[in-house]
Fold this protein.
Amino acid sequence: MDLLNALVAVLNYIIVPATAYGAQLALGALGVTLIYGILRFSNFAHGDTMAFGTALTILVTWGLQGMGISAGPLPTALLALPFGIALTAAFMLATDRVVYRYYRRVRAAPVVLTMVSAGVMFVMNGLTRVLIGVDEIRFADGARFVISPQEFKAWTGLAEPLALRSTQVITVVTAALVVVWLFWFLAKTRTGKSMRAFSDNEDLALLSGIDPNRVVAVTWILAAALTTIAGTLYGLDKTFKAFNYFQLLLPIFAAAVVGGLGSPIGAIAGGFVIAYSEVAVTYAWKKVATYIVPGWEADSLMQLLSTEYKFAVSFTILIIVLLFKPTGLFKGKSV
Amino acid sequence: MSTHQPKAARGGALRAPLFFTIIALLIAIEGMTRGWNGALGILNMGLISAVIALGLNLQWGYAGLFNSGVVGFVALGGLAPVLVAMPPTPGAFAGGGWGILIALCIAVATVVAAVWLNHNLKGKARAVAIIVTLIAGFFLYRAVFDPAVAVIEKINPSAQGNLGGLGLPTLIAWPVGAVLAAGAAWVVGKTALGLRSDYLAIATLGIGEIIVAVLRNEEWLARGVLNVNGIPRPWPVPYEIDLQANADFIARAAGMGLDPVTASTITVKLLWTALFALVLIGLLLLAQLALKSPWGRMMRAIRDNEIAAAAMGKNVTRRHLQIFVLGAAVMGLGGAMMISLDGQMTPSGYNPLRYTFLIWVMVIVGGSGNNWGSVLGGLLIWYLWIKAEVWGPTLMGLITAHLSDGAVKQHLVDSAAHMRLIVMGLVLLLVLRFSPRGLLPER
């Protein structure tokens, strides 16, 4: 019984939240990796693009709610998501046209493009604040739980609760659908194939008649979709606050680098590696230990690092991978 | 990284004096229209920004290193006035100070041991040994560290609860701030330099976040989010209250037709200005000498073509590490100066947009690789940053004047203060696009 309780505690506090978080990071890292593979720079504006896309989605959500439209048990934000993606994609394409295209034409060094992306980051950060403010916003509606803690306790008679929030299920399902679709797109469609060719060898791809502008445009649209979905899922799961999205930049980059920059499958693996380590290292294990070793009361919380240091976890993993395996787990682009 | 362009910037030798005259005029106009107190306030922070920008210019302008963790080095420098200049907390050092020092030594020893194992073992044994060392070291560290912290945080928690300082003069804290930041930079540089430039950017982004997180959470160090107040001012700068109580000073102020309150605030601000200007001039002199020396030429040669420089026998990674540490030291100095000026340490105020990317805007706009450009950028961008907060709502008020009052108008006016972020982004993008070498291009 105690072992079961320990298992449920691990499930409730680690596996379930970390899986949802990992799915969000994976989507974010996929965007970073796509941009890195095709456009060849680290996009510092990624976190703020997530915030921007989410802000637009929230605005549309409010509009839909105002008109009395809802998705029943599902959050209204899912209905608003396509609009959010379309608006963000339009913004990204415009940004590319006005800002990034010039640097591609003059073949600027990647580090210059990274600098430019910092400028874009400023603008998007400001726009998000102007659009929706700096406060914390909850916009999840619909059913709250798939498994509620009280019901779980009543069913099983265990002391430990297990909560499975609907936003967590939605996150994982949505992320899985998006990833399956993205891999199908990259592997089977003509555009997807040309993107991979462009990423592998730009000159060869150009020689074989691939239209670079089309590849770049599709990349931005995909990146807009991925960031908006990741941001909205993160906001549904937790809350929306623009500054938190900026801070997500570090775990997302870490996920992309750990998996291997430029490798989509690596981005997903990296997202989960980062998420599980972050949650496991910052979780207070005392309760689980008490269940597993009966009759023993730990005198500390058995927490390796306090929650505020979760960024240190992604950073440490990042450094370890950079030092020992700079191409990442899945052979991304090397140094 | 500015590409070399033979054509000199328009204006030639008069270009820099012209821009600095414009800054002086802007400050003067501010002083005459809105009062000298505010104007000198902008100037003082502008001078500190110029110092930090000089540090970033060493890294980016001289060597092309992308440091996106400026905020961390500035914050670490800001820790120095707390640790050096604050009065010691009675009993803190005896109670837990040694424990913390021993714990930190254990941490360092663990890392050194892991690095040694990494160099001297091979294959599976290496991995196992490193992991075992790190885990054992971590638990040993926590076992010594946690009780020591608990002791310190119990001492008078409403006002102190931290290690306190050494009670030394604040001016000593400034170089100490530089040393703290340089130490952190050495660790980061040792691990991340030599990898591709993007990786340095990502690694420094991380270290910046972590340093700020440490300052926010380690209450024994600088009271975390509880803030440290009343950090003593450095030697020549008096307190306004003392001046106002000084009969001699009041008489002299009256002689100039000023009331004591205004006279004291302006005197204090002017002394700050003089102090900061002195530091800035010293740094500028050193930076210029370094830039024109064989060392500076070597740095720029490495920046412009690493492979060629390596072929000429230059150790690129070591030189990068050297300048990365130097640049961070200057940033730390700036951070320490800023905390002395504020008189309080508020770790939650270290926002990367303000302390990393705004500094970037200063360096790029001023002209990367040009020290005078960084100083110009620091002063000009700081001025814009402050004024954009004021101008935004005014502008928005004009734009929305014809709208009827309502939620939309209210929202627009309220959010107009955030417009300065957009303004800074646009300034950066416009300069990068149309004048990538900045206002004062590198020669």
